[in-house]
Amino acid sequence: MKKYLSILKKTKLFSGLSETDISSMLSCLDAKLFSYKNGDYVFRQGEHLSNICVLVEGKLLIQNDDYWGNRTIINNISIGEMFGEAYVAPESGALLNDVVAVEDSVVIFFDFKKILTVCSSACRFHSMVVQNLFFAISEKNKKLVQKLGHISKRSTREKLMSYLSEESKKQNSLSFTIPFNRQQLADFLSVDRSAMSNELCKMRDEGLLVFEKNQFRLL
After folding, report:
1. Could you say which of 143, 177, 199 is where a domain stops?
2. Which residue, 27, 42, 190, 195, has most beta carbons within 10 Å?
3. pTM score of the predicted model
4. Using CA atoms, how far apart are residues 145 and 72, in angstroms rounded to an integer?
5. What is the CATH number for 179?
6. Tens place of pLDDT for every residue, the chain, 219 residues?
7. Cβ–Cβ < 8 Å for 171, 215
8. Are 55 and 80 contacting, i.e. CB atoms less than 8 angstroms apart?
9. CA 106 from centre of chain
């Protein structure tokens, strides 16, 4: 667990805390470490959660497969990101999506009830973690609104331009790398992969952008 303290220090959940502070809180929050191979499910649709999780190694996708096998990618989870917080409230119900490792990954689980309840040792940074949790949830809600903005566009080109423009702004550069391969990007934007690939080639031929795999540059 100690090898991941530097990563936890950079997360939204532990913002403002030192590695020493975080280390002293791990037992207080009943932190547990789990490893997953590429392709393993961290959670499956229908499960009930009681933990907030932080990815400290690898990469995960939040995805949903319908009855006919059509896949939609809701979001990607990168190192240092938190997930599961939307389903830990008593009335949240069962998980609506799958969480899948797309690389060998390591996840730390934190007991949600112990985050909200001051421990017997009354560690002085506990209230800061609760405050950070609130801010982190607010930021994730903003990201979901941004995604709705992308997929609400009418055409495949408009969806691509909306998403790529947002990524360029977020990374503060005309050249940037996205966290998806072609199929994952199509699933994320809810478009057909072939149609999307054709549209990207048209945009490249029109001088709007250049790309190589998941690296893009807007022109």
Report:
1. 143
2. 42
3. 0.81
4. 16
5. 1.10.10.10
6. 889 999 999 999 999 999 998 998 888 889 999 999 999 999 999 999 999 999 999 999 999 988 888 889 999 999 999 999 888 887 888 999 999 999 999 999 999 888 887 666 556 678 888 889 888 888 888 888 888 999 999 999 999 999 999 999 999 999 999 999 999 999 999 999 999 999 999 999 999 999 999 999 999
7. no
8. yes
9. 14
